[in-house]
Design goal:
Mean pLDDT: 96
Number of helices: 31
Strand content: 15-25%
Number of strands: 38
Distance between the termini: 74 Å
Oligomer: single chain
Low-confidence stretches: none
Largest sheet: 7 strands, mixed
Bound molecules: iron/sulfur cluster
Length: 889
């Protein structure tokens, strides 16, 4: 520790601390304007001047390192005058009326504390106001040129939108469009607004609705990054959302969805009362009537057709507690293992693959390893779009010197920064990864010491991958053999190497096997069990990891314990034998419904019809059932067309609970506002139905905490994750006891299954979905930055202005060949169906391949997607459908 004095008071700070940190430790606060703790020190504004004994000049506290023995003075009258002079200079053209209107802004606070409000004599000028962004406005007349917006956009967000033009008195900050924000490359993350110390950058909602009355810390409702938010509410409405500054995951940053896409909770078409479809029309009913109806129909169908005639779908958008109740309801009340969740259509192959080799179906490392990795391999994932906060951390790590390999059919944003981009053909992950292992073993780049100590099957794998030489595999994958060699060498030699992967790995015929190859690669190079390494799936929705881990899986109970080897604790706690018949997964449930075997389905927080592939097939299945119950915030497409009952759920901002993010971190969500009307948390609805079906003993929880305590009693590695501990911050499992610190890196010394594990040999099996003369293009599908999946939530926010429609992205040369113009609507036709959507040019695609997002019910892309499924888990092959493109005129 470094010892020094501040205004004659002794203080201690960590090595590397600045004088501003020392002042904070001493309880001294001085004005800062250009300083933001998320940014590298700049010292440009010279407001935080202090004097240091023995130094002739005043120093900027934010940029001066603390040194042993320094004597620092902050309260000298000369210093105060000097700060006043700088603040007065900054305020000379500032619109004074803003100071009281936005008391939370740092510059305003300091002007008031130093009695300088009257120095702000400027006027706001409508001609200098840019309100073109749907979420925030930029008023140049309130800009004091502190450059925090410029710096946070580049240093944290990595978008480089804000530019400084001209020099001296003519200096101006402008977006990269050199015109309106709306024309710029801004991704609307709001970091500049959050950092701006004046009213130059202000959220529209803050202008319109004023300052929030209450602030509640909770977790983002969107992706599996799990950013923590501060939610500002006023009169039971969310008026502003800010990033939690000290959150371990997002470290004071969020993306456009987390920060701005929250107004769906107040949407006019939010359903807040239960409804039954009577005579073909929806009718609002009381909870008593809805519960009685659901309970009696489920009882009838179970008695008539047996428990396995009913299926339950938990939700990756719902908290752990609700998913636990969903699977307990299926197993205890109905007596079936027919329970699944939307992990089936995304990362089920990841969980299966990782469990099959490593013994745990979850990320081995933490997001903080991004900054520790020497090399980052991004495969089948576009984090800048789908997991933006992680994407920006990867980009920043690269800009600070890490190596970056991107393996993706598209030149995604990170590919522009990559040392190696392997632009492979969709569906060829297995031969590509086998080929990388071929190079590593051929060139002796494996980690022999690690392999000797922990891994079996090395010689067998060496023999197996001999057949996957880059010269043979290159043409299969559509890449140059030397590129495969470059990627293999970099991954194997610049260690630790960390991989992050997404649905480009899992949504294939060989989804599970592809991830097994990725695990093989990591083991071969000693990258499992080390900081800065590992295999790390980026989970799609916020609680994909949690919903499956709570037991919303047909073959696994809570804690990912196989149904076939259920511990006695379940029997004791649930008070009855568990159903023995293997359950159906989501895809199998729909197959069974189509042939009349599944009679009822209860779907929680998931739009099956819009989201599943081959929509015609999904429609046939949903139409066939006698009872479809949809529980959601809105009448989604599945509910609108097929449901018999709609049960209104509370949103995550409207109730407590826990989410589990993609790095195994369990975090508390807290209630910021009340739910509308009579909407209820999902677990409470299911508990009421259970009670109406005569199950009171195991379904009499008082609240979410009581449910979570039951989860902990059945899940030994999560037993230490009490609400009381989570209140102080999220923790990563395994965390078996209340004094365990949680686990950031798995498999350090051993695997759950033992000290050693074995590599797998995975033979490449090409997808049957291939191009032909009738269907000459290969369609890949995925998400967009502004929307999540069926856009149930984002589609009811201003994000729809930022991204109004799905698009068909196509290489300009392919488009020209077809005579297509950008923006023109086309029909894409596959063997499964067709959809109409506008064309967008994308130079990052491979010839003959197109890419489309699938969010809009109007476009309904999943009418075209293929029926091929992962060979192990049944996850659909969304990433590869042969199509033709037809002009509409
Ligand atoms: Fe939410 Fe994901 Fe964006 Fe974070 S990165 S704010 S969790 S959508």
């Amino acid at each position: 520790m470094i010892q020094l004095t501040v205004d004659r008071k002794p203080v201690e700070v960590e090595p590397g601390a600045t004088l501003l940190d020392a002042l904070k430790s001493a309880g001294r606060e001085i004005p800062t304007v250009c300083h933001d703790e998320r940014l590298a020190p700049s010292g440009a504004c010279r407001v935080c001047l202090v004097s240091v004994e023995g130094q002739s000049r005043l120093v900027a506290a934010c940029a001066c390192p603390a040194v042993e023995g320094m004597n620092v003075t902050t309260d000298d009258p000369e210093l105060i005058e000097s700060r006043k002079a700088v603040l007065t200079f900054m305020a000379r053209e500032y619109p004074g009326e803003r100071i009281d209107a936005f008391p939370e802004k740092g510059f305003h606070r300091w002007l008031k504390l130093y009695g300088l409000e009257h120095e702000a004599q400027g006027r706001s000028d409508r001609d200098r106001l840019d309100a073109s962004n749907p979420y925030f406005m930029f008023d140049r007349s309130a800009c004091i040129e502190c450059y925090r917006c410029v710096r946070i956009c580049s240093e944290v967000q990595g978008s480089f939108v804000w530019q400084i033009v001209n020099r001296g008195p003519e200096t101006r900050i402008v977006p990269d469009s050199l015109s309106e924000m709306a024309q710029s490359t801004c991704k609307s993350c709001g970091a500049c607004v959050d950092s701006c110390p004046t009213s130059a950058l202000v959220d529209h909602t803050r202008w319109r609705e004023g300052l929030a009355d209450s602030w509640t810390r909770t977790v983002c409702p969107y992706c599996g990054v799990g950013c923590e938010l501060e939610v500002g509410a006023k009169s039971n409405r969310i008026v502003q959302v800010l990033p939690a500054r000290d959150a371990p995951v997002n470290k004071g940053h969020v993306c456009v969805k987390g920060r701005y896409a929250h107004q769906y909770v107040h949407a006019s078409d939010r359903i807040s009362e239960p409804m039954l479809r009577k005579g073909g029309e929806w009718e609002v009913v009381s909870w008593d009537e809805a519960i009685t109806f659901v309970a009696s129909r489920l009882t009838e169908l179970r008695n008539q057709h047996g428990p396995d005639s009913i299926g339950i779908l938990g939700s990756s958008r719902a908290p752990n507690e609700d998913n636990y109740i969903a699977q307990k309801f299926a197993r205890v009340v109905l007596g079936t293992n027919n329970v699944d969740c939307c992990a089936r259509v995304c990362h089920a192959p990841t969980a299966a693959a990782m469990k099959s080799i490593l013994g745990t179906g979850a990320a081995t490392n933490s997001y903080d390893d991004i900054e520790r990795a020497e090399t980052i391999l991004v495969i089948g994932s576009n984090p800048s779009v789908n997991h933006p906060v992680v994407g920006e951390r990867i980009k920043q790590a690269k800009l600070r010197g890490a190596n970056l390999i991107v393996i993706d059919p598209k030149a995604i944003e990170l590919a522009k920064y990559a040392d190696v981009h392997v632009q492979l053909r969709p569906g060829t992950n297995v031969p590509l990864l086998n080929s990388m292992m071929h190079v590593i073993l051929e060139e002796g780049l494996e980690d022999s010491e690690y392999l000797n100590r922990r891994i079996d099957g090395v010689e067998e794998l060496r023999e197996f991958v001999r057949d996957y030489a880059p010269e043979k595999v290159g043409p299969i994958c559509g890449v140059c053999p030397s590129t495969i060699r470059d990627a293999a060498r970099l991954y194997a030699t610049a260690r630790p190497s960390m991989s992050v992967h997404g649905l480009g790995m899992t949504e294939h015929l060989q989804g599970t096997e592809g991830v097994q190859c990725l695990v093989n690669l990591a083991l071969l190079t000693g990258n499992i069990g080390v900081e800065g390494g590992g295999v790390n799936p980026l989970r799609g929705q916020n609680n994909v990891q949690g919903s499956a881990h709570m037991g919303c899986e047909p073959s696994n109970l809570t804690g990912h314990v196989a149904v076939s080897s259920a511990p006695a604790a379940f029997l004791e706690r649930w008070g009855r034998p568990l159903p023995e018949v293997q359950g159906l997964n989501l895809m199998q449930m729909l197959d069974a419904a189509e042939v009349g075997q599944l009679k009822a389905m209860w779907v929680i927080g998931y739009d099956v019809y819009l989201t599943n592939p081959s929509a015609e097939k999904t429609a046939r299945a949903l139409e066939s059932m006698e009872l479809v119950i949809v529980q959601d915030l809105f009448l989604n497409e599945s509910a609108r067309l097929f449901a018999h009952v709609f049960l209104p759920a509370a949103a995550s901002f409207e109730r407590p609970g826990t989410f589990m993010n993609a790095e195994r971190r369990v975090q508390l969500l807290r209630k910021a506002i009340d739910p509308p009307g009579n909407a209820l948390p999902d677990w409470e609805i299911m508990q009421r139905v259970a009670q109406a079906m005569g199950e009171t003993e195991g379904f009499s929880f008082a609240d979410e905490c009581a449910i979570w305590d039951e989860v902990r009693s059945l899940w030994p590695v999560g037993a230490g994750l009490s609400y009381a501990r989570l209140e102080k911050g999220g923790l990563q499992w395994p965390c078996p006891t209340e004094d365990h610190p949680g686990t950031t890196v798995l498999h350090k010394d051993r695997f759950p299954t033992g000290e050693r594990t074995a590599l797998k040999q995975i033979t490449y099996i090409p997808s049957p979905e291939v191009v032909s003369d009738s269907f000459p293009f290969l369609l890949n599908s995925g998400r967009d930055l502004y929307h999540l999946n069926a856009a149930t939530m984002t589609g009811r926010t201003e994000n729809s202005r930022l991204r109004p429609t799905d698009t068909l992205d196509i290489l300009p040369s392919d488009a020209r060949r077809l005579g297509l113009e950008e923006g023109e609507s086309v029909r894409i036709v596959s063997r499964f169906g067709e959809a109409v959507l506008p064309v967008r040019f994308d130079r990052g695609l491979r010839p003959g391949e197109v890419f489309a997002t699938f969010h809009s019910p109007k476009v309904f892309l999943n009418k075209t997607t293929s029926t091929v499924r992962d060979r192990v888990t049944g996850t659909p092959e969304y990433k590869r459908t042969a199509v033709r493109i037809e002009r509409l005129r």
